[in-house]
TrEMBL record:
SUPFAM superfamilies: MetI-like
UniProt xrefs under InterPro entries: ABC_transporter_permease, MetI-like, MetI-like_sf
Signal peptide: none
Keyword Membrane attached: yes
Protein name listed in UniProt: Carbohydrate ABC transporter permease
Entry superkingdom: Bacteria
Transmembrane segments: 7-32, 65-91, 103-130, 150-172, 198-222, 261-278
Amino acid sequence: MRNKDVSFWLFLTPVLLGLGLVVIIPLLYGFIYSFTNWNGLAATEFLGLTNYIDLFKEAEFRDSIWFTIKFSVVSVIIINFLGLGLAILVTRGMKTSNFLRTIFFMPNLIGGLILGFIWQFIFVSAFDGIGNLLGIEALQGWLSTTETGFWGLVILTSWQWAGYIMIIYIAYLENIPKDLLEAAEIDGASSFQRFKNIIFPLVAPAFTVSMFLTISHCFKIYDQNLSLTAGGPFNSTQMVAMEIYKTAFNENQMALAQSKGIIFLALVAIISLTNVYYNKKREVDM
């Protein structure tokens, strides 16, 4: 038993070292620097809460938080709806199920920057061409307004992540006893009743996991935002990650960027953990 404990910690040590060196120690240093005038090289003065007070005075930072929240709410709903729908589709015993699973999952394998440039071409060049050909003004000038930029980001993210979330739902759908569904069907339960009373309660743990993953991902998006809209027009589609990056490396205000990062971390943690707590509680009630 003692040898097993030693081997356990021996294998776990590299992971703990990596976590400490890459995540925990930089986080602690960042938290400390957020109270100073750190410029990326040295901190010469302790400023207290000055950086935290200043960041809430910035309209651009507040706007980026609001835009990120709106984007995340809409994207999380759409991604989970599509993911569950695709999972139900490919678990119906069709001959092409394995092929469809591969096709739906493939967008998740494409890097964020490349994906953004692909969809930028579609939204700008392809949509303009179709709009001019068919005389549809709504397709022209995509990504040139805040509204179309918002929906462009939602479409891109949903297309990329729906297949990944589908895999999680598939794992739970395939563990639902077939005889349970057959018994409900024999008793006269409709498709909607079987989904509401049997399928959805049994895939509730998958819903918890998927919600956590999609919320944390949508809040942290940077590369897709950069390659698709670059925050334009006039920073109206700028998400928090991009705003923090600009504060740090464009404006060279490292300490202020650190304080924004700490606030952003706290916001994402509160929303994610609250979501997990609520969904876990709902699983028990079901």
